[in-house]
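User: I'm curious whether this sequence folds into something compact or stays loose and floppy. Could you predict its structure so I can see for myself?
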Amino acid sequence: MRFDDSLETVLSADMSTPFGAQSAWRQLVDLIGRGRADATPAAIARLRALRGMVPATVRAASARALADATPPAALVRLFSEDDAAVAAPVLRTAQLEERDWIGLLPGLSSVGRSVLRHRRDLPAGVVRALAAFGGVDFVLGASIEALATVDAGHDPVPVASAPDAEPAIEPVSMPESSFASIASIAQGLPVVAEALRQQNAPPAPAADGTFEIADLVARLDAFHRERDENGVPIEAEVFALSPVEARGFQFETDASGMIRWIEGVSRAPLIGLSLDHVGEGAAVDGVASGAFRRRSGFVNARLVVAGSSDAAGQWRISAAPVFDRGSGRFTGYRGSARRPRVEESAELSRGRGRAGPDALRQLVHELRTPANAIAGFAEMIESEMLGPVPPVYRGRAGAIRDQVHALLGAIDDIDMAARIDTRALDLRDDAVPLAPLLARVVGDLAPLADLRSATIDCRAAPDIVIAGDDRAVERLIGRLLATLVASTEAGERIGVTARIEDMQAVIVSDRPRALAAYAAEGLLRIDAEAEAEQIGAPLLGTGFALRLARNLAGELGGSLTLGDTALTLRLPAAVSANVGQAFSN
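Assistant: Here's the prediction. I'll summarize afterward.
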């Protein structure tokens, strides 16, 4: 189906219900905003008609979704006519020609033009056109009475006019507002009222008839005499004062995460502190260090500064990464810090350890429920159970379904790891023929092998039987081979052989060339971030998958050995007496 046909389908759909109107709005904005359909007058008119039926939150979400698109001028004009919360995301990111921007400016509100003034990528002609609106956008309306009022506590000063002067302009009547300024509220407090009364009252003469300055000097002399009699030196009073606690500061780091610039507090306690430091001696928590390793921003990370300076104590820090505009190279962070609010704490969580396995299993349960719901709705959209769906959205629903199934597999792996950790893994005594199991696993991995342009050569004797829980054995072998296939290179062959040795089923798998650079234990430390761009890589990382396989093999009474060229899996064997070996169920 062509995009024009999709547009006609949307325009002809039933939009009488709120659900239909919102669906049509989202689809029309997506098709036009991403260049999949033309911004025809009929399409824009339909959007204008739908705008009143679509909630502002939905319209704002559609506007934010256009951040990575290039909407045409007609669609930008439509959004610019909306509320500020809806118009601002589009005005901040839209890319239009100079003539389109200039034609759009007169119809914008002062708030919309203010959004454009903060952009630094507009053409020079647009900047000059924005400057021409300055007198209109920046004027503050005020009545003549307000301008003639000298003080809020005094009556307005009357403005005299000459007999032949023109009639005074009628002041613009402003609607009454329930807003009360802090100053007006403070003036009603008893303490403030008394202070104002004493300030406005005439000075009272001293009791002995002397001037006020003489009375002040006498008080100072009495203070000094009392201090000298008590023997308290001035230095003791001065140095007994504790430093004033700062409430916030700004900082910058270099590319290594080291703080190099501070403003707002003493520099000595903070200069040289690293964001990439986790452990007993660290001053920051894992939020900042994890974000640093991903070169991403972070909000409200925890920082604790020792000592007795104005920077000492707990902080909440937020920062954004900075990249060189010319080369794109990461140059560090720029951020700010604040003291925790009353309901917050910035104390580092050292000594409390990681979350227990029981808490992890509860988290797995909480994740599995919404993931299953997402997969179900994606399948409903893909199969058009609720009505016709354009092909582009059916394709997206299929992609969502596949990704959710991968997420569910990762959730099951986490659940199994937690069960192993708590000795709560329920294993049954069973006999699993190895050859059919390997054939089934290789068949399931065929699409991934084709995607990686790799092949799996599996050879196993037909009489090998594994003694163990069939579900656990299948998960172990399936996860292990999937991890190896995901690391293959184009044209690579993974050989899998199986034999009986010392009453054990020995399964030997070739090690992919991409993993040759890692030592045996180094394979267990490969995380998901190192494989973020690898197609088909385990969602939780190769290291987690191999650790899970090794632990599960141990639960089944076997072992997993990571060699330089191969991975060897050993599991208890149970074969029938027909081939000369004992079988027990």
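Summary: The mean pLDDT is 76. The first helix runs from residue 3 to 11.
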